[in-house]
Every structure is written in C-alpha cells, then in structure tokens.
Amino acid sequence: MELNRSLIKQQARQLIQGRVFILFLIIFVVGLLSGGLSGFVSNIQVIPEIIKNPEGFQSFPANPEATTTYSGGFSFGGILTLVFLPLSVALAGMFLQFIRGTQFDLGSEFTFVFTKTFDKNYIQKFLLKLLVGLFTVLWSILFIIPGIVYHYKTYFVDFIMADNPELTWRETIELSKKMTNGHKGELFVFDLSFILWYMLVGVTFGIAGIYVFPYIVTAQALYYENFKQRALQTGQMNAQDFISNNEKMAQAYNSQFGGTYQQTGYQADPNMYQPPVQQNPYQPPVAPAQPQAPVQPQYQPPQPAAPVVPVAPAVPVEEAPAPAAEPVIEEAPAAAPSEEFYTPPEDVKQYFTPSETPEETPSETPTEE
User: Fold this and answer.
1) Measuring CA to CA, which residue among 122, 113, 109, 120 is closest to residue 91?
2) Do 170 and 131 contact (CB within 8 A), yes or no?
3) Element (H or E) spanning 366, and its range?
4) Which of the two residues, 287 and 90, has the higher pLDDT score?
C-alpha cells in the first residue's frame, strides 16, 4: 500500500509556516558550497582574463592560455565542491530534527550543519556522496533508464546516514536499496508530483524557490520517516538493519563477556515526532470483503393436514318421566235445586230410612215488572 502523499505534503506545508526564509537560507548555502561553487569560482577567475583579452577569450578553446586559466579555476572550484560534498548529508539530518520538533533559528541551523559535516564520520559521508554520484553517472552512460533506477535505489542515503551515523557508506547504500525495494515507482510519482512547483520556480526566475525548496526538502524528510515506519511495520525491515556491523559485533561481545552495550546511532524520541495519520498515512492493507452469496430460503416440506376427527352426533338425553300425578277425585257437581236428591242403590236402602220428601221449593224466577 502506498503512502498518502497528499497528507504528507499537507503536513510539510504546515511545518514550514513561519520558518520558510530560515530554511531556504541554509538550503541555498549548502547548494552553493556543495555544487554551485565550482562554476561560481571558475567564472570569477575567468573574468579578469576576459577583461584583459576579450578577443582571446572569444577564441576559446583555441587559445591555450584561456584554456589553462579556465581549467585552473575549475579545479579550484572542484576541490571546494568535493570538500563540501558531505554538507548534503548534514542538511538531511537537520531536516529530520526539524520534523521531529527541533526549532532552528538563523544561527543554530548553520552550527548544526557544519558541526555534523566535519565530525569523526566525515570520511564515510564523503565516500557515500562521491561513490553514489559516480555510480549514477556510470549507469546513466550505459542508458538513461539504469541511471534513473539506481537514483531511486539510493534515494534515502542522505537521510539514512544522517539518522544512523555509525553506518558505513556501503551499509547505507544497501539499506537504502532494501528500503526502496518494490517502491521505486512510488518514489518516482512522488517526485513527479512537484513538477508544477519546479515550473513555478522557472517562471519566476528562481524567486518562488524561497518557498518551494524548503517545502520539497521537508516533504522528503517526512516521506523518509514514513517509509521507514512502513518498512518496520510490514516486516520488510527490522531494527537490527539500522545498526552497523561494528555495533553488532560490540553488542555480541558485550553480551558474551559482560558489559552494557550502548547504541550510538539515532534513537527517536517518541515525544518529539508522531508520524502523520493520525499521524501516519500508512495503513496496513485490509483484505477486501469476500462477496457473500445471497441466502436461499431452505425448502420446507409441506406439513400434512391435521386429520379430521368425526364428531359423534349428539345423543338426545332422555328426560326422566315425570312422576304420575295423583288421581284427582272430581266431586260431583252439586245438584241443581230442581234435581232430585241422591237415591242410594237398592241394596243399601235397608240401612237407613229415607226421610220425607221435601217440599218442592219453587224456583225463583225473575218477576217481570
């Protein structure tokens, strides 16, 4: 997974706010001493010859005297350039300290760069810059593409040696190759993203460089820091890779025969620098979610219908017969007044003597008035 270039460049712009001129000044001086001084000294020494003999200088290089003067000026400027070659390594170290929280003023930045250049590791810095430049030119002579590839293999050599001063020039080159393995195209795109800024410098005759050069070098320092963090997180590199062979031997000796090993290389202070992404634009790749097939409804066999239980017809409940009513003895209606009295049967007449026949009572009949 590639680093987040936009986030890194945004943080670089934030870091250089209010520090642009100070950072540009040290970049300009280092560039002048480590590269531009050769041509500058040559031109200064040729100017008197031009004034004395302008016609002879116009015939250059046919004029041997002019050729000798020019070559003498170039050799002096070339010697100064070689002497100050390690300045670029110290400049890379200054920008690493800057993104990690160190605030440089106008005097301290020059003190830092020149002190770190001419220290005990000066020879290793000098050989690193000399040989990397020489190998790049040799590969470019064969064909332009190998030269470009070698340039991106050694893209971080200045930052690596500034960050780990005990490394030799050979170890530094190998470490840069290991760090950039598989990411050269990413570095090429990173450099290409500044093309409009370089065009702006050209259009403004270098005036825009006051802002552009500090911005680009700060972004490169941040890019190195995040490159290193990503390599450690993904297992492409480990902490032992940043220790020189001499330090590894001393560490092994101390562990075997006693003593405490002290690493002399740079050890980052976690309170000074927090890489962007949330301070770290690099995020380990996440495997894309595998498409899930739609869940098919499972077949459900039809449920058998519940058997219909025939309902028995209701059996009429026979009512118990009502108790028989007692016979009612009907009394004979009373005889009307005009009826005869009861006549007992013959066989019972002997038991009583009938009384005299009562007189007939006349029936009351309504009298008509």
Assistant:
1) 113
2) no
3) none
4) 90
- Contact between 34 and 88 under an 8 Å Cβ cutoff? The reply is yes
Strands (E), 243-347: none
pLDDT tens digits, one per residue of 186-241: 999 999 999 999 999 999 999 999 999 999 999 999 999 999 999 999 989 988 88
Q: Which of 253, 84, 211, 232 is nearest to 163 (CA)?
A: 232
Half-sphere exposure of 164 (CA within 13 A, CB side): 24
Helices (H), the chain: 5-15, 20-31, 37-52, 54-58, 64-83, 87-99, 108-117, 122-142, 144-153, 157-163, 169-180, 184-192, 195-203, 209-234, 245-257
The distance in angstroms from the start CA to the end CA of the chain is 147
pTM of the entire predicted model: 0.63
Cα 32 to Cα 113: distance, rounded to the nearest angstrom: 14
What does the alpha-carbon distance between residue 308 and residue 304 come to, in Å, rounded to a whole number? 12
Neighbouring CB atoms inside 10 A of 268's CB total 14
Alpha-carbon span 188 to 3, nearest angstrom:
13
The tens digit of pLDDT for each residue in 46-82 reads: 444 444 555 544 444 444 444 444 444 446 667 878 8
